Amino acid sequence: MTTAERLERAIQTRRDFLKVLGAAGVAAMLPALAARGKAPEQEARAQFVFTRIIYEKGDWNTDSLTEGLLNGSEVNLLRKMNDSLQFDAFAGEHSVRADSDEIFEHPFLYITGHGDCDLTDLGRKNVKEILEHGGFLLADNCSGAKDVGFDRSFRGQLALMFPDRNLEPLPMDHPVFSSYNKIDKILGGDKRLDPFIEGMELNGRTAVIYTRNDLGCAWEGHPCLPGGQQQRIHAFDMGVNIIYYAVSGL
Questions:
Q1: Closest CA to 134 of 16, 247, 21, 17
Q2: HSE on the CB side for 80, CA within 13 Å?
Q3: Do 69 and 78 contact (CB within 8 A), yes or no?
Q4: Cα–Cα distance, 215 to 17 (Å, whole number)
C-alpha cells in the first residue's frame, strides 16, 4: 500500500465517522451523537486522534503530560470533548515524528513550541503530502513572539513546503468560527496577541490554521491574560471548532 493510499484510508475513516453520526453538517454532529461509552483507550481503535508532531530540536512536547501543569493540553481538550460533547476521540497524547512512516496514518496534525520547529527534508515532504491529500495542520505558537522563535521557524518551514502559498487572517465568517460554537470575536489563548487566527488555503479549503495566542497553554491550565476564565473558555471553544472543522473536511 502506498503512502497516499494509507492516508486516504485514514481520511476515509474520519469521513465514515461523520456518516455514522448522520451529520448533515458539522453543526449537526452533537444532536446525532449517541452515548458511546468510555473514550477509546487505544489510539488504533479511535475514530479521531489528535497527533502532535515531533520535530528536530526545540520543545515539541511543551504543555504535554511530562512538561505541563495539569495533564497535557490536548488531553484536557479531548477529555472535555469526550465527556461533555460525547465525541469519540482518543483521549490520550499521541506524537509521531514528521519523517516517520506512521505519520501517514494521522491526517490531523498539531505542532507547537517556543523556538525553532525545524523538520527534516523527509518530514517536510511527508507533511506536505498529507496536506495535499486532504489532511489538516494546527500550528500553535506557545511563546507568542513575532518574527522570532516558533513564529519565524514555522513560517519558514511552511514556505519551504508551499512557496506559492501564504498564511492570511481568516475572516470571521469563515466556517471554522461556526463549525460547532458560534464565535464572533477572537479572545485569545493564554495570551491575547492577535485579534485573528491565520489560515492557508490549499485546493479550495483551509488546510493549515496558525495562531500566536497560545491555545495549548490555555487548555493546559496556565493563567489566561487579560481575560481570565472567559478567555480560557474561549480557547476551549476555539479548539473544539478547529477539530470539528478539520474532521468535516477530512
A1: 247
A2: 19
A3: no
A4: 26
Q: DSSP of 33-80, one letter per residue?
A: PPP--SPPSSGGG-SB--EEEE-SSS-TTTTSTTT-SSS-HHHHHHHH
What is the Cα 198 distance to its own chain's centre?
13
Give the range of the structural domain holding residue 91, as residue numbers without chain letter.
3-249
C-alpha cell at position 202: 490549499
What's the CA gap between 150 and 71, in Å, rounded?
A: 23
Q: Would you say 54 and 111 are in contact if contact means Cβ atoms under 8 Å apart?
A: no
The CATH number of the domain holding residue 23 is 3.40.50.12140
What are the grid coordinates assigned to 92, written together?
490520550
Q: Rounded to 5 degrees, what are φ and ψ at 241?
A: -60, -40
Q: Are 247 and 187 within 8 A, CB to CB?
A: no
pLDDT in tens, 133-160: 989 999 999 999 999 999 999 999 999 9
pTM listed for this prediction = 0.85
User: Cis ω on the peptide bond leading into residue 226 (within 30° of 0)?
Assistant: yes
How many angstroms from the chain centroid is the CA of residue 213?
14
DSSP code of residue 225: T
How many domains does one find in the chain? 1
Question: pLDDT tens digit string along 9-62?
Answer: 666 655 554 344 333 333 333 233 222 333 345 565 677 899 999 998 889 999
